[in-house]
Amino acid sequence: MSTIRKISEKTNLSIATVSKALNGKYGVKQETRDLILNVANELNYHPNLNARSLKSGRSRTIGVITEDFTVFNAPFIMDGIAAACDEVGYHYIISNMRFYQRYGNIPSDESESESITHEHIKDMLSRQVDGIIYLGCHSHRIISLAKYKGMKFVCAYCISNDAGIPYIIYNDTKASYDATVLLLQDGGRKKIGMITGPKESMHVTNRTRGHLEALYDNSIPYNPQFTLEGDWERDSGFRLGEQLVRAGVTAIFAHNDLMALGVLDYCKSQGVVVGEDLKLIGFDNREVSIVSNPTLSTVALPLFEIGRTSVTLLLDMLNGADEASPGEVSLDCTVISRESTKV
Fold it and tell me: Most CB within 10 Å of its CB: which of 15, 74, 177, 335?
């Protein structure tokens, strides 16, 4: 295994000069730096990160604990985390608790959820990470992390129970308000149906609030018969879409894209032209929304930005800025208008 000493011997340069060049520090001429880097490459030199972390007191590594990496939001948030880490020369380690694959959701037994989470945190601590990002499956309150007083945490796509631990979510309420306003534009669609997810979901509460606020601000009476509860799945969109269309609605706001696609399936089976006879918008901007026929209007979540922001906040905390923890950070979504809401 190559070392700094071997590079020093081959280049006839001091160990201090070689170390400066390899660590990107000032005080080394460019031609000397190029020579050292070329020789390091020839000798297949790799820095000893463990030794470097012992010297600096920092591993320059972030731990990321995901509730489930297979949930649609996780890869995009991780991309933001990876990009932010690359920019500042940090590494990251991913630990996947596999909640959805194991249980279909967050474990209903809170003690089991705590046990799994603590196991993964302890594993991260053993790897000497500088801080931990906890990545949720959806916006819910996670278990308390207060017992790990020596570790810095940031929560992404979920809500912290602990003061001093910031969390990054997106503004469901504003996004749903804007989505409803889009259905009201250019055609005066006033009979708007809504297909929600399960009522216990925090997303459902926020999205329903935004929808009702938009109706109120536009002087549209709310008809509770036009609000039906689904289960996030495409089949429930088909079934509930049938009820709403038969009830005479002229537009539908579905709380996710899968249920919106179920509405689209029903309309196609009945000859209802979405985008003309009925306006339709979903939520999440899943990949299938751009390839459906017609293409589906939807709400794009700031997933990449959630990942990037979580790294920025964590590094701020590691650098001593946690005295003024921002608490909740809420990012805006983007409403995307496609063929399903055209006039």
Answer: 74
Give CA–CA dist 33/234, Å, rounded.
59
Helices (H), the chain: 4-11, 15-22, 30-42, 49-56, 73-88, 99-103, 110-126, 172-184, 202-217, 234-246, 257-270, 303-316
Distance in angstroms (rounded) separating the CA atoms of residues 98 and 107: 10
- Average pLDDT, whole number, for the chain? 90
Strands 328-331 and 279-281 turn out to be unpaired
* Angstrom distance (rounded) from CA 44 to CA 192: 65
Domain at 59-165: CATH architecture: 3-Layer(aba) Sandwich (3.40)
Q: Domain segments of the chain: what residues?
A: 4-47, 59-165, 172-301+336-341
Question: DSSP 3-state assignment of 147?
Answer: coil
Alpha-carbon gap, residue 281 to 194, rounded angstroms: 10
pTM: 0.82
- Tell me what the mean pLDDT of segment 247-266 comes to: 97
Q: How far is CA 263 from CA 198, 219, 230, in A?
A: 17, 26, 11
